[in-house]
Amino acid sequence: MTVYKYFIKIALKNKWTILGYTIIFFSMSLISGSGATEREPKFMETRLNIGIIDNSNSELSTGLKDYLEGKHNMVDTIDDEDYIKEQIFLERADAIIIIPEDFQEKVINKEKSIKIYNDDRKIESMQIQNQINKFLMFANATYEDGKFNLANVNLALREKAKVKLANNNREKNNSINNEWFRNYYNFTSYVIIAMYIAIIGMVMTDFTDENIDSRMKISSKKFLNFNMELYLGQLTIAAIITSIFILGSIVLKGKYIGEVDFIKYVINIIVFSFTILCFTFFINNFTKNKFVISGLATVLSLATSFISGVMVPQEFLGEKTLLLAKFFPTYYFVKVNGTTVNSFSDISFNIFMQLSFAVAFILMGLYFSKAKQKA
Amino acid sequence: MVVEVKNLVKRYKELIALDHFNMEVEEGEILGLLGPNGCGKTTAINCILSLLNYDKGEIRVFGEKMTPNSYDIKREIGLVPQEVSVFENLTVIENTDYFCGLYIDDKNKRKQYVEEAIEFVGLKDYTKFYPKKLSGGLKRRLNIACGIAHKPKLIFLDEPTVAVDVQSRNFILNGIEKLNDEGSTIIYTTHYLEEAERLCKRIIIMDKGRGLVSGTNEELKSMISTSEKIVVGFTEIEDETVQNMKNILHVMDIEKAGEDYIIKFENGFNNLANLMNFIEENQLVYTKLQSQLPTLNDVFLELTGKELRD
């Protein structure tokens, strides 16, 4: 087992690479995790800075203005799209509302009646939209004989419901913990790609170096045994790296494992690790250039993380980005992490896709290997 | 016969790297493959070791046909490649142990062999050193240790002294002689004449993929017409006198080399004395007089019309 022994030995000489990525990963997990576990005790409405341009000057638009003025701080604005966008961008206003001339008719006909400029990424945008929707819904409900009963609308809006959430702590905790585990395991895809290529890929370049390879070929070590030991070495290093991150999740959130689909995360990361190991096999047969491999480790890990929903949730990514992401297994890995599992069939397709990539990488690797032998 | 190569042909598309090359190596000898860069020495070795496929011919090692799966034969072979082929991330002892481990499974036996190899190449004080910390000469020694640690019966040394300082070169050459004394058969490729003359019991001179001639050092030198060269310089000499020198017994040719003249003699005795008589008779004053026996370079020059180092 000389080859196996020295593969491990050389791989572990990259301990600073392993340690570096591990520290970065766990630091980021701890930072993101500290926020995710905080329980919000109550919900409070916030006073926002809003601007209103009323082109309708109707009874209904005045009622809406009065309602919003009571809840928010008003800022001056003008009916100029560029100016309005600048106000939003510079955060001088959280939202600018434009009420059109035919506001009342549109409300009566249940058409989209108001234009709102805001930053969709901010949670405040939801609040203002909810309040406007609520007002218009109540106003529509009081419309009778060609008139709105704004007095009743205001009465209804003043009503406060006392809502008691019955025994939902467990569900809320589950949701928060699931989100933590999902984010944690999503992010492992980045470090797994980066570390596998940077460590296993680099060690393999040493073993496949033309001169060292010649020495192996003239030795009495059988080719099959030699390769078996090399692949066993790769599997061992891959298992060590992946185990660090599985164990990390247990150390950081071990007491919540029972509340989440932990087995799903473990199965998924093992399948993904295997696929990336196959990808590393393909890379090693494609190139022996250490600079190329080092570049791939950095670029591929980051790029696939960005387009596959590791850094930014898949829901916020464009269609074209997601279409591109489907050509790499990270997309399917992230999909599984985000799926609530009732039975294996819920994740079977995405697991199958990852394994299909593994097979494809092996076949491509073998193709390049054969091509090189012929050359 | 340890190695037998018959009519070996190796082509790289249009280029013929080996052109019906023949070679026989007997047990216990050091055979030198001598030739300029690109003459096919390394290609021949790679074909013998089954590292390269060849187009035609037959190769037998230890009496058996050599194939990539001839593991029993490979067990008895060691290779010291032209390039230093070691792991940069392993120390001297780890590198030697790794390459020895490709042949020897027994841990205790391997430990002993590795220690002996490291001592043999004089790297005992550097066992924990990484290759990048070693000088060029020491790296070459490590390269040798990795190729011989498993105590092979047949060793291929492919230009092991390229870019090595004089001290390390002598150390390496002494080591090769010692390996041979201990019973190893050695195939040694080089383009350094003096190394081949010193080490090799038999030499094959190669050019353009062909074996031009083979024989012992003396046999090769006796194959050429020039048996002695005398370099002489005069304070003053007339062209007519130079022409008259050609009448000295055994003189074949006279060449002007700068201010000096190289007088080539064919086989014969008292060449220097005859030349001295001529100088006295013609009352010439010489500034330089140097007798040289033919070298392998002269052999190569006469066979190919070019210098060995071209």
UniProtKB/TrEMBL annotation, chain A:
Sequence ranges assigned to domain ABC-2 type transporter transmembrane in this UniProt record: 16-367
| Keywords assigned | Cell membrane, Membrane, Transmembrane, Transmembrane helix
Q: What is its main location?
A: membrane
The GO terms describing molecular function are:
ABC-type transporter activity
Transmembrane regions = 16-36, 187-207, 228-250, 262-284, 347-368
To which species is this protein native?
Answer: Keratinibaculum paraultunense
Q: Name one GO cellular component term.
A: plasma membrane
Q: Which domain of life is it from?
A: Bacteria
Q: Where in the cell is it found?
A: Cell membrane
Pfam families named among the record's database cross-references = ABC2_membrane_3
Membrane protein topology class: Multi-pass membrane protein
Q: Which InterPro entries match?
A: ABC-2_transporter_component, ABC2_TM
Q: Does the keyword Membrane apply?
A: yes
Q: Which PANTHER family match?
A: MEMBRANE COMPONENT OF ABC TRANSPORTER YHHJ-RELATED, MULTIDRUG ABC TRANSPORTER PERMEASE YBHS-RELATED
**Which protein is depicted?**
ABC-2 type transport system permease protein
Q: What is the lineage of its organism?
A: Bacteria, Bacillati, Bacillota, Tissierellia, Tissierellales
